[in-house]
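Quick log. Single chain, no ligands specified.
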Amino acid sequence: MRTVAAIAALLLALSAGTAAAQQLEAKSLFGSLATPVPLESRSIGFYSRGCLAGAQALAVDGPEWQAMRLSRNRYWGMPELVAYIEKLAHDARVLDGWPGLLVGDMSQPRGGPMLTGHASHQIGLDVDIWFDPMPDRTLSAAEREALSATSYIVRETNVELDTRRWSDAHNRLIRRAASYTEVERIFVNPGIKRELCSWVGSDRAWLRKIRPWYGHADHLHVRLRCPPGMAGCTAQSAVPPGDGCDENLAWWLSPEPYRPAEGPVVPAPELTLADLPNACTGVLTTGPGGLTADDLKAPPPPLPRLRPSTG
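-> predicted structure:
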């Protein structure tokens, strides 16, 4: 009850500057915050248009995982996501022999759009897991910044799997990642989806969660479902029936998705605070480390440039 009252009070205090604040770029606001908001854990909005309350940090070093790119501060998520990563790391090692996970981006401390990289990962239910196995030593902070994830797709082919590097162990890792009921879908390169369609035996039900998408040559992108009963978390449309090894995959493997666009490419407009659920303003401003009313004031327009004197 106190949480609701606190958010309401803050929103009221900010109301005078709301119109200006709503036009600010959301990625700059959320990308500037280093700590989570001390509220009940909640995914707010959609995976690519929302924010995150009460985020939990993944331990940067675990018995079967290591978090990468620590300087990005993107190792935050819903408690369900942290629990999933820990469970997958343990099961993949014990049951499948995978050495351990290298964990890429999750979400920012308060979710929301990111300054670089992802369109999604905004509500604490997405995680990137490298295809490279964890080494048998603890990486230094510097190594975690310098190391690059290995592409398992042959360069300049878009979809041809590099069979010199790929192994059945990678297939087992993806199958394990998809095996849990909380997983909504997993994005991989179309060439990897093709490999899985050929490798799998009679148990093909999990394959429908594996969705081909651009890139994803060096990691799998796991997306969890909205937690049961969580109001305000917008679910994604269900994946189509079947194993996905059909016409849809054939299209992804054809030249069509990779043809250059005809004419000039107009970039999508940046998301503003107005594009996100109203509750995200409270996520930005509540608690220690949050933004203030002054932070949410739009910058003044630039002064007109005066013409040089000719006198």
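Residues 25-254 form a domain with the Muramoyl-pentapeptide Carboxypeptidase; domain 2 fold (CATH 3.30.1380.10).
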